[in-house]
Write a structure and sequence with these properties.
- The complex is a heterohexamer, with two copies of chain A (129 residues), two copies of chain B (130 residues) and two copies of chain C (101 residues).
- Chain A has four helices and seven strands.
- By secondary structure, chain A is α/β, with parallel strands linked by helices.
- Chain A has one domain: DsrEFH-like (Hypothetical Protein Ychn, Chain: A, 3-Layer(aba) Sandwich), CATH 3.40.1260.
- In chain A, the strands form two sheets. A five-stranded parallel beta sheet of chain A has the order 6-5-4-3-7. A two-stranded antiparallel sheet of chain A has the order 1-2.
- Chain A is globular, with a radius of gyration of 15 Å.
- Chain B has 130 residues and is an alpha/beta fold.
- Helices cover 38% and strands 20% of the residues of chain B.
- Chain B has five helices and five strands.
- Chain C has 101 residues and is an alpha/beta fold.
- Chain C has one domain: 3-Layer(aba) Sandwich (Hypothetical Protein Ychn, Chain: A).
- Chain C is built from four helices and five strands, in the order βαβαβαβαβ.
- In chain C, β1, α1 and β2 form a beta-alpha-beta unit.
- The longest helix of chain C has 10 residues.
- Classes of the chains: A alpha/beta (129), B alpha/beta (130), C alpha/beta (101).
C-alpha cells in the first residue's frame, strides 16, 4: 500500500478510472463520469484514462438534439473545476480512430499503450467502465 | 404498412430503447400501423412505472406510455422475461404472492406467443437490442 | 429480394460490423445506427472495408446518431444520411431486416 | 411476400432465428431458445442459424454444476420433438473456434458464410439474438 | 483481508452477478471481510424483491439477501442508478411520490460516495460487469 | 507491484481480450472468467496470442466457467485452473485488479 496519512487521519489512494466504451450507445460513459465527479469530494489522487472506444467520450462537437437525449459531454470540461486534471489518452487508440488531440474537448496527456500499462500498475484502485 | 417492433434492452443502459421509440414514433407519423411493440430480455424494464430519471433528461417509460395512449399502441412485456427481472402487474403480483407491482400504464404482460404472432401478422419486424 | 442490415456496434469493440460485411449480398443495404456509425468514419480500418463493400451495397447512417457522437463531417464519401423517417422507409423498402446485435 | 394460405386461413412464413452469442455469459442464448420453443406451436417454417459465437451454444459437454446455474443445453436435443429440424451452422465460425460437427450436441447442416447469406435473404422474418 | 465488490450488471441477463455472488461467498468462506458490495449501472436490478425466477433455476436476489443475513453484509444500491431504473425503497417511494417500492430485504439505497469509500477502506476492489 | 487482470469476454466477439494483452506487464497475471475462457481454447487465434504472452505472464481460468461451456480438455497447455476460492487468492496476492469489461 502507498497510503499516506492525512491530517484528518484519512487515507489518500491513487484511483484510476479507465474508460473503454463509446458514449451514448451505452450508459457506462455517463455513469462513469458521475462516479468521477463524486470522487472529487473525497480528496483522493484521481486519474482518468481513455483507451479503446473510450476516446470517443471526449470528442468535440457531440450534438444530441436529434436523438432527444441529454448531452453530457460538456461535463468533461467541468472536471478541472473539481481539481480533476490528470486525463490520459492512449495514442494507439486515437490513431486507429483517425483522431488527434485537436479533436478532443479537454486538454489531455497522450500516453503510449506501454506508458498506459505502467500507469495502471502504479495505482491502488482501478475502476473500469 | 403494418410494422412490429422488438425491444431487447432496458431504458438508459443501452440506446436501443431510445432508437426503438424514435423509430416507432416516426413510423406512426408516416402513417404506418404499428401492430405491436414487444419487450423481451432486459427490454421488459421499459415497462416499470417506478423510474425517476433526472429532471433534465428524457423520461423513457413515460414517453412509451404517452405514445401508447395517443396511438392505441399494443405494448407487450414478455411474461417469462419479466418474472426473471421483477416486472409484475397486479394480477401477476397476486398470483405470485408478491406485495407490490410496478407495471407502467399502457403496458400489458403476456406470453412469447405474442412475439411470434407479431412476426406472422406484421409485414416487417424490426429488432432493437445490444 | 433484398435485405436491410442494421449495425449498432462499434467496429472496434465488437465483431458485428465484420460479421455483417461477410453476410451482406449484392443489392442489399446497410444502415449504421447508434455506435455503428463509427464504422463509417474516415481514417479507420472499418471505413476501408465499408468502402469496398459499397460497390455492391448501399450504405446509410442515422444522422442523429452521427451528430450525437460528433462524427458529422467525418464520414467517408458515399454514405447517405437518413433521419428516423428515412430509417422507416428503408425498412419498408426491403423484404426483411436483420439487426446485427 | 411468400405467404401461403393454410386451411385455417393462417399464414405460413419463413422464420429464421440467428444465434450469434455464446451461451451463459449472457442470457440471449437461453431466451432465444425459449422463443424458438414457443414458435413451434404456430406451425411456421422455422430455421435456426448458429454463426460466430453462437456455435458455442450447441457444444457438447456443458456442465453447469460448478457455476450453480441451470444447464439448458440439453434442450437443443429436444427441438426435434417439436419438429424444429432445420439447424444450420456456419463452417467459418466453427473453423475459427477449432470446432467440428463431432463437437456438437445435435445434428446440423453446415453452411458456408455465402450459403448462410443466401439463407437469410430467403426468409420472411429474421430474429437475431 | 478487507475486500469490496462492485456489481455492474443485473441478474440473469449477464453472468456478472452470478460470478460476483460466488466470488463473495468464497471470500467469506476463506475468512476475508467483505467491506461492502456496491451495485451500480444495471447492477441495481439485483436488489428487487419482485423477481420470480423459474423454480428449477437459481434465485439470484434471494441468494444475495440470504448471504447478507448470514454474514451481515452491506449491500448498497446506487441511488442515481436505481432511480433511472425503477428500484426504490419505502423512503424513496414516498419522497418521489410513487405508490409502490420494490427493494429486496438486505439491500439499502445510498449514494455513489459509498463506492468511493469502499475503494478507500478496502484493501482490494473487484469489479464484475459487462 | 503486480496486477491481476480479469477478462470475461469472448475474444471473437469483443476487443477486451486483445486490449488486455496489449496492457499486461511482465510478472502480472491474467484470469479468464465467464466467456473469457474461450480465449484459451486450442486451435484459435486468441490462444496463439495467449501462448506468446505466457512467457511473461501467468494465465489462469475459472474452472466452473470452463466446464459450463464444455471447454474442459480443450485449453492450451500452461493455463492453470482455479475455483472461486483460487480467484479470491489471486485477488489478494496482487496489488490491484483490473476488469477488462
Amino acid at each position: 500500500m502507498t497510503d499516506e496519512m492525512m491530517e484528518e487521519g484519512g487515507k489518500i489512494k491513487k484511483f484510476l478510472y479507465i474508460n473503454r466504451k463509446a458514449p451514448h450507445g451505452t450508459i457506462y460513459a455517463l455513469e462513469s463520469l458521475e462516479v468521477v465527479l463524486i470522487s472529487a469530494a473525497f480528496e483522493q489522487d484521481v486519474s482518468l484514462a481513455f483507451i479503446d472506444d473510450g476516446v470517443y467520450e471526449i470528442v468535440k462537437g457531440q450534438d444530441t438534439k436529434g436523438a432527444e437525449i441529454k448531452n453530457f459531454s460538456p461535463t468533461y470540461r467541468a472536471l478541472e473545476g473539481y481539481d480533476i486534471e490528470k486525463l490520459y489518452v492512449e495514442k494507439e487508440s486515437m490513431d486507429a480512430r483517425g483522431l488527434t488531440e485537436k479533436d478532443l474537448l479537454v486538454p489531455v496527456k497522450v500516453l503510449t499503450a506501454k506508458e498506459m500499462a505502467d500507469l495502471m500498475e502504479s495505482q491502488d484502485v482501478v475502476m473500469s467502465f | 404498412m403494418k410494422l412490429a417492433v422488438l425491444v431487447n434492452e432496458g431504458p438508459y443502459t443501452h440506446q436501443a430503447s431510445d432508437t426503438a421509440y424514435l423509430f416507432t414514433r416516426a413510423a406512426l407519423e408516416k402513417g404506418h400501423e404499428i401492430f405491436r411493440v414487444f419487450f423481451y430480455h432486459d427490454g421488459v424494464n421499459n415497462g416499470t412505472r417506478l423510474t425517476v430519471p433526472p429532471q433534465d433528461d428524457r423520461n423513457i417509460v413515460k414517453r412509451w406510455t404517452e405514445l401508447a395512449e395517443k396511438h392505441k399502441l399494443d405494448l407487450v412485456v414478455c411474461i417469462a422475461a419479466a418474472q426473471r427481472r421483477g416486472i409484475l402487474d397486479e394480477n401477476e403480483a397476486k398470483r405470485q404472492g408478491k406485495d407490490a407491482n410496478n407495471i407502467a400504464p399502457g403496458f400489458r404482460i403476456s406470453g412469447l406467443g405474442q412475439l411470434i404472432e407479431a412476426g406472422i401478422q406484421a409485414d416487417r419486424l424490426v429488432t432493437f437490442g445490444d | 429480394m433484398t435485405m436491410l442490415h442494421t449495425i449498432n456496434k462499434s467496429p472496434f469493440e465488437r465483431n458485428a460490423f465484420d460479421s455483417c460485411l461477410t453476410h451482406v449480398k449484392k443489392g442489399s443495404a446497410i444502415l449504421l445506427i447508434e455506435d455503428g456509425v463509427y464504422g463509417a468514419t474516415q481514417g479507420t480500418a472499418g471505413a476501408t472495408k465499408l468502402a469496398a463493400a459499397m460497390k455492391d451495397v448501399a450504405v446509410y447512417a442515422l444522422q442523429a446518431d452521427v451528430e450525437m457522437r460528433g462524427m458529422q463531417g467525418r464520414l467517408i464519401d458515399g454514405v447517405k444520411l437518413v433521419d428516423y423517417g428515412g430509417f422507416v422507409d428503408l425498412v419498408t423498402q426491403h423484404q426483411n431486416t436483420q439487426a446485427w446485435l
